[in-house]
TrEMBL record:
Coiled-coil ranges (or none): none
Name assigned to this protein: Fe2OG dioxygenase domain-containing protein
Keywords from the UniProt entry: Iron, Metal-binding, Oxidoreductase
SUPFAM superfamilies listed in its UniProt record: Clavaminate synthase-like
Keyword Metal-binding: yes
Residues of the Fe2OG dioxygenase domain: 133-235
Amino acid sequence: MQRSAACTRKNGCFLVTYAKVSTELSDAVFQAVGELSELPIETKVQNVADIAYFGYLGQDPCKPLMESMGIQNATSKEAVQSFTNLTWPSGNDHFSDTLQLYAKLVRELKETVSKMAFESYGVGKYYDSHNKSTDYLLRYIKYRVPNVEENNLGVPTHTDKTLITILHQNQVSGLEVKTKEDEWIEVEFPPSSFVVMAGDAFQVWSNDRVRAALHRVIMKGNKERFTIGLFSHQKGIIEVPEELVTNENPLKFKPFDNFGYLRFTLTEEGQAMNALKAYSGI
Ligand SMILES: O=C(O)CCC(=O)C(=O)O
Ligand SMILES: [Fe+2]
């Protein structure tokens, strides 16, 4: 299998080296979420959310290898603090300081990348108002090593429902991206690298110019895998900028409610792979 060509614009993602997150911070954040994942299950299940996947997920028979927890509104100091109070009632300043700094820096990366994307399409004037209405969810995802007779699928094939997802992993690989030619390619994360991935909301915003990355996780080897992702969603309604609607590329989507869509994808109808067209296609 090729390993270098997974993250390309054509596949809806790219790899960046981001030195603002130092090796020390990266190690500290993986250690912090490692400790979080070791807390008793009774503590972790208290992380409930209005939208299921924003909170604690685990023991799912469809995804038995995976467990995850989300910190909603993760770039707000108060939100990280109240998450920390929930999980460590006697306090854990090291956890909240580490997570806050990490979320702030990865958010800056997301902002830089989105601004560049807006400018490259000649619609930079919309960037500020778009940026103000972004919601940030920070999640860790932990994958255990499968038992001998178990399937090694960590996360089944999907696109994210986000505008942009930014992923960072410990040393253990497993993420695969599907090309337009229907080939699966494993993503290699060099040190200090992050995967920037377009989600369905970005596909809508770009009027189908950018395709949301189709991806999955396959566990290989005998080490557990951790990923930390910053998942950004749009509050309010996304309208395709009029500049991106042309005779050659007519409007493909109705005004799009990102959170409404997220809820829709958790319904039976929305579990279909063509959920985006079903929800918002013209
Ligand atoms: O763990 C990964 O690399 C990807 C996780 C993922 O695709 C997701 O949580 O949406
Ligand atoms: Fe994903």
